[in-house]
Each structure stands twice: as C-alpha cells, then as structure tokens.
Design a protein that fits this description.
about 425 residues; seven-stranded parallel β-sheet; elongated; single chain; about 50% helix; Rossmann fold; 13 strands; alpha/beta
Length: about 425
C-alpha cells in the first residue's frame, strides 16, 4: 500500500515508518520541513489548505496521523496540532476516498482534563463521525530507546533517590514502540474490521515507583532511596519547571500522570496475536551500559552546576554582608592590602563570585570553567604563602578547593566542541 504517515519524524512516527517499510509498504512521510525525496510538507500549525491536502493524498491508500506535541510552543499549540490540523486532514481523506485512516490518540483522553487530552479527543470524535474506514488508537505511555519520555524516566531512575509524587502509586502499562507500530500496521490491513477505537497497552501493569525501580535495576544500579513527595508540592513545582526549556514536568504532564495510563491488555493481545512486551523486556542487556551512561549524563552536569553556583553565590553574600568586615580586612592586611585598596578588593571579589555563580547557571562553558579554575588556583597559592595556618584549618576551608577543582575538571571534560 501507499501509506502517508503524518508526524513521520516524531518518536512514534519514525518507528511506524520503519515498521511499515520493513513490511514492504511505500511510505510517504508528512513533515513540517521537507528534506528528503519521500517527504511532503504537512504542517498542522499552519492554516489548513483543503485543496492542497486533497492533492497530496492523490494515490494514497491509507493515512496514519502520528503528529503530536507534549508542550505548546509558539504556533505549535494543542488546538492546531491535535485538533484543527488533523480534522482538516480527515475531511480531505473523506473527500478523496482514502481507504483507511488511523488516528493515534492517547489513552485516557475521555477522562482527562488536560488540554493535551481534550485536543486529542476533539479530533477523535470528528474522525469517528465520518463515513470512512477509520481506526482510533489510544496507546498508553510509549517506551522506546530514543523516546524523550523514555530518556526522562531512565534519567529519573538513575538518580540514587527517587522522588515519588503522591507516593508513586500511579498505575502504568507502558507499551513498546515496536508493539504499537505492529498494532497499527495490522489495523491498516484490509481484513481487519474498520471503525474501531482500541486501547493499546503493554503486557505488564506496574506502579510508577515500580517502573523506576525496574529501569534502575535493568541499567545496573543498586536500590535507590525512596522519598514520597505530597501531590500539592509537585503541583506547585510544575508552575516553575514548565517554564524551563525542555522540561518534562509541567502541569499537563502531572495531570496525565495522576490519571494513570493503563487498560485491559486483551484487545492488544488479540490484535497482535501474542502478549505484548512487558516493561521488564524493554531494556536489553546489551543496551544497559550505553543507556546507563546516557541516563547519568542527562542530569549529572545540572547537579554539578547547581552545587557550584550555590557555592559561588553564597561566598559572595557571606563575604560582602555576613562575615565581620573587620576580620576580612585583617586577613587582607596580611597580604599587603590596606584601607581603600582592601575594601575595593573585598567587594570586587564578592562581585566576581556573584558573577561566576550567575554565569554557572545561565552561561556555562569552557571559558567560564577555565576562569574559575584560574581564580581558585591563584587565590589558593596566595593563601598558602601568606596565610599558611589556613592549610591546617580543621574545617578544611582551603582544602575544600580540591573537590571544587575536580568538579570543574569534570564539567570542562564534558563540554562538547562547538
């Protein structure tokens, strides 16, 4: 068959295209920006052009809509990408007589209140009202090695303590991307009854807390410390985190997690002719080492930068306002600084510490790490010569520069070439 897949570059869309091509189908890929010969431009964020859509569907036997977003950004709104664009596509399919149309929706749309759900449901209902051979597929959370949500959950699993929202008892039944792709391919076959709405789920239901433990074990980590976090705290945190670029924690994703993602596996088993993969089958032994490294890299630099930024910023505050100024000036006098020169040096050093702290958060990079290393090495050498008694301080005030230097070397070594 000639099959158009909209959202072909997305996680689900790319897995589906690969599966359909392996089955011998000719796949036309609907994308926002065309770069390959087998692609056509279909941008749901742009105003719908029905006549253009009808022309693009010439010779197409079946259409799969795999377009979707987790977060709104600019013109990429839930209403445009999940509702208005798909509805225009479905109407065009009806006009030109496309034989099969599959809409990839989401499990829980009929009970969900988040805009992600309501926008998907509107498109589902429109397709279900049309006199064509439609299929509405509602998958649970989809797992795949390269999926953004899968990477996010593996990163969370790799952290040595698991923050469990509302205790982490939300019920989930992840479906593997390969099983979802196979299910959709079967729905495109002529012998499969049309006009079905199917929940597609994986072979094992687990709680959110169990999911993290299973992923952690599969990646080769030991048991993590579990910390329950009240739901109201998570709800408040989403208001902050959803404004961070690339954040997976938003008010919508929190609502989606609260509603769970599970259903009866019988329909999926019947469609596939076998039990779908369970969550314990997702991470192969051969994948564990590279995925473990990827999971650690996802959060490690952020943790190191946060600790480093707090150190610089707190040092600036303490030096400028909290530590007795007379004691600071007495130390500076021992290295030959007095009066105005000493005061200028004190506040200039505090300002530099503050600048380093803010830059660590907002403008990290090689130049910053080199500058911080140079400063720490420089003033440590001065202190060692002028104030040698601080080297034997039982609280290690100077010795603590060693782990900070090690931290900076890690950040420096992990910088990619620009």
């Amino acid at each position: 068959m000639n099959i158009l897949v909209c959202g072909a570059r997305g996680f689900i869309g790319s897995a589906l295209c690969a599966s359909l091509e392996r089955r011998g189908h000719r796949v036309v890929k609907g994308v926002r920006i065309v770069t390959q010969a087998d692609e056509i431009q279909i941008d749901f964020a742009a105003p719908a052009d029905t006549s253009r859509l009808c022309a693009q569907l010439d010779g197409i036997d079946a259409v799969v809509n795999a377009a979707g977003i987790l977060r709104e950004h600019g013109e990429q709104s839930f209403d445009a990408v999940h509702t208005r664009g798909p509805i225009a596509l479905f109407d065009a399919c009806r006009q030109v007589g496309v034989k099969r149309v599959v809409q990839i929706s989401a499990l829980g749309v009929e009970r969900g209140t988040a805009p992600y759900f309501t926008s998907k449901l509107a498109a589902d209902r429109h397709l279900q009202s049309l006199p064509i051979a439609w299929q509405v597929v509602r998958p649970a959370l989809v797992y795949g090695t390269h999926g953004s949500s899968s990477r996010f959950f593996r990163a969370l699993a790799s952290v040595p303590f698991h923050m469990l929202p509302a205790g982490g008892h939300q019920r989930l039944r992840h479906v593997h991307a390969d099983d979802l792709a196979e299910a959709i391919a079967r729905l495109l076959e002529a012998q499969t009854p049309a006009r079905q709405t199917l929940d597609i789920v994986g072979g094992e239901e687990v709680e959110y807390r169990e999911m993290l433990a299973i992923f952690r074990h599969a990646l080769g980590f030991g048991q993590a410390l579990r910390i329950g976090v009240p739901g109201v705290v998570i709800g408040a945190a989403t208001a902050l985190f959803e404004h961070l670029p690339g954040s997976m924690l938003t008010r919508d994703t929190w609502r989606m997690l609260q509603s769970g993602s599970t259903a009866d596996v019988a329909a999926t088993t019947a469609l596939l002719g076998r039990t779908p993969l369970g969550i314990r089958d997702f991470i192969a032994h051969s994948e564990a080492t590279p995925l473990r490294r990827e999971a650690l890299e996802a959060w490690r630099s952020y943790a190191l930068r946060f600790a480093l930024a707090i150190t610089w910023i707190w040092s600036a505050i303490v030096s400028a306002w909290l530590h007795p100024q007379a004691q600071s000036l007495a130390l500076l006098a021992r290295v030959g600084l007095h009066g105005t020169a000493a005061l200028t040096t004190l506040y200039a050093a505090s300002a530099l510490d503050l600048a380093f702290g803010l830059a660590t958060i907002f403008r990290p990079g090689k130049r910053l790490w080199f500058a911080q290393i140079a400063l720490i090495v420089g003033y440590t050498a001065i202190i060692a010569l002028a104030l040698p008694e601080l080297l034997t301080d039982p609280f290690g005030s100077i010795l603590k520069n060693l782990p900070i230097l090690a931290l900076l070397l890690v950040l420096l070594s992990e910088e990619v070439r620009s």
